[in-house]
Task: structure prediction
Amino acid sequence: MQDRYERALIVGVGGGLSASLARLLAREGMRVGLAARSVEKLAGLAAETGAVTQRCDATAAAEVEALFAAMDAALGGPPDVVVYNASYRVRGPFVTLDPAEVARTLAVSAFGGFLVAQAAAKRMLPAGKGAILFTGASASVKGYAQSAPFAMGKFALRGLAQSLARELQPQGIHVAHVVIDGGIRSARRPEPADAPDSLLDPDAIARSYLDLLRQDRSAWAWEIELRPWVERF
Result:
């Protein structure tokens, strides 16, 4: 790695990609923090990886500040890798959408990313190094029918990442946005027998995040797209 990363915080942890990331980063020797609205579900993953957990609603500024303060202490210093993986969506015909649910989608998909990235950058700038990674989706670049709120949120998150990359990378902080263009395989979403290789392997996605962290700063990527080799795009 250009800079040796030691402490990672993943925000919006579930049992898929976030869990794969936690396992991989722990194996790489990093101390790992996990944040989610419900931490009870993270007990097994925390025990497996030695991670510390903290409840956090990423859309609440006070809770994000409390999260980073707790992680500064629990990880032995500020996180130098922060991954924003929180997501929420509401779907349906445009004229039937509930405005409150649309607001929630935008808050989780984009505003939470702003709050988390701001708290991370405040800690990384004095050190002149760090990495902030955002998890995007197909909706980051394509607005699908009956999915306007998710497209709005993910387009905003991508814009945030691009703006931050231009501002923070010259100050030593690697900012990257990862477009996950396809479904992610899980126990609840197994690969169809008649469509092999049609879903992304979360462990393979995690390795791509690690590849970003290993990039030499002379050749940093601000965005990568990941999709199954059979995916049409």
About this structure: The mean pLDDT is 95. The first strand starts at residue 7 and ends at 11. The first helix runs from residue 17 to 27. Residues 82 and 120 are 7 Å apart (CA to CA).
